[in-house]
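tokens incoming
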């Protein structure tokens, strides 16, 4: 969110400015992929109940760095269950306890919750179904910060903004990453705009990122609108390969949204139906050229066994797990580039999983399977669809022998 931490907790470094904005692309919905949910909050409980302290902790204080106007409290007046399966974060024009802010006596209260002490994860799918507030000066966000922020500071910790909305853009949300050299106004991201003048405050929408080594993809209601990789950073450091924690908050005012005005009605609410985190793991066959499958030759688990193209037969030699850590696994071992080579024509094999670049892969929206270390595509040698044809890595060309359907 490029939100600085509240002043009473730990100040970050810079104020936020708007990310790059693009209209909603002509895109189809992302295919539904089975994933294991590893953490979730469905916000079930009686009306007026606080959030589960085993999952969320309140941040309390103001925020000078963004020049926001609210004081974040721990009160159920600002964050409570509604009894209908939702968490409601409420921004109010009030000051019940003479709270003091950077600009003097605070004018507003709201809430900010995080999982820093209760849950962190590296990679996977992070999603929430949210109905945002409306009005000038409103700034709801669903985002993540690196769990090393206390030791390395921001932006070196990294920040992944899954969804931000500012009240003067009722039809648009933003997804952004921030890191060293690309923080604040230099954050790298994009916006998604609803078609036909629809407004996000009129209903619930699902906001998500799919995060894998070297790749973060944003979607709204299953429609992918942005993907960022290290190549988008202009040589700056990618800081998204360690655990992050979740944040939900509703800010009032600040550099980016501007302050509320006479048109802004209070109270305003950010309603969250659920937050879910999946491992990112999914399993099944990988099919490619001529509808054939990626196959471990002879179902042999020995290190160095060739990986080839073969008629699909449903055996374990063709059951691959696309793992959240960027590896692709079968028979208990990993898809591996022989000797860690990065040249065109380097053959692919099965090998003990070791976390090296030779075993780190990213799946693009264009159906490429890219070896991250080599920045090259999984390729059927010679465009040959015969059974037993070896797989290799090759400069990505967009040709049919580099296109794959994954679980």
């Amino acid at each position: 969110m490029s939100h600085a931490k509240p002043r009473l907790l730990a100040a970050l470094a810079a104020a936020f400015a708007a990310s790059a904005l693009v209209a909603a692309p002509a895109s189809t919905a992302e295919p539904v992929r089975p994933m294991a949910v590893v953490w979730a909050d469905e916000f079930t409980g009686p009306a007026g109940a606080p959030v589960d302290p085993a999952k969320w902790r309140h941040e309390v204080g103001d925020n000078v760095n963004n020049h926001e106007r609210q004081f974040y409290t721990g009160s159920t007046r600002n964050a409570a269950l509604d009894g209908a399966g939702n968490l409601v974060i409420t921004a109010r024009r009030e000051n019940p306890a003479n709270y003091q802010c950077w600009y003097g006596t605070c004018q507003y209260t709201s809430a900010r919750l995080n999982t820093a002490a209760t849950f962190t994860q590296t990679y996977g799918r992070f999603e929430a179904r949210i109905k945002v507030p409306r009005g000038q000066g409103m700034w709801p966000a669903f985002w993540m910060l690196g769990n090393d922020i206390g030791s390395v500071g921001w932006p070196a910790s990294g920040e992944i903004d899954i969804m931000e909305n500012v009240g003067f853009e009722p039809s648009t949300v933003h997804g952004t990453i921030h890191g060293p050299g690309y923080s604040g106004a230099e954050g790298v991201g994009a916006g998604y705009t609803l078609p036909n003048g629809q407004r996000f405050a009129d209903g619930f929408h699902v906001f998500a990122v799919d995060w894998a080594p070297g790749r973060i993809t944003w979607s709204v209601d299953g429609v992918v609108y942005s993907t960022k990789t290290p190549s988008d950073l202009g040589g700056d450091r990618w800081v998204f390969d360690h655990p992050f924690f979740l944040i939900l908050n509703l800010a009032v005012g600040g550099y980016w949204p501007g302050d509320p005005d006479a048109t802004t009605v209070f109270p305003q609410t950010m309603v969250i139906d659920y937050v879910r985190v999946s491992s990112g793991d999914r399993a099944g066959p990988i099919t490619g050229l001529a509808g054939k499958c990626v196959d471990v030759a002879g179902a042999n688990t020995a290190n160095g066994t060739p990986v080839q193209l073969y008629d699909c037969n449903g055996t374990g030699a063709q059951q691959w797990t696309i793992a959240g850590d960027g590896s692709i696994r079968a028979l208990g071992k990993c898809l591996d580039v022989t000797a860690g080579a990065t040249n065109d024509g380097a053959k692919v094999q099965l090998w003990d999983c070791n976390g090296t670049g030779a075993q780190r892969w990213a799946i693009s929206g264009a159906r490429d399977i890219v070896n991250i270390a080599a920045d090259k595509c999984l390729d059927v040698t010679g465009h040959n669809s015969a059974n037993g044809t070896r797989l290799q890595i090759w400069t990505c060309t967009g040709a049919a022998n580099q296109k794959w359907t994954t679980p």
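note: The chain has two domains: 37-278, 282-402.
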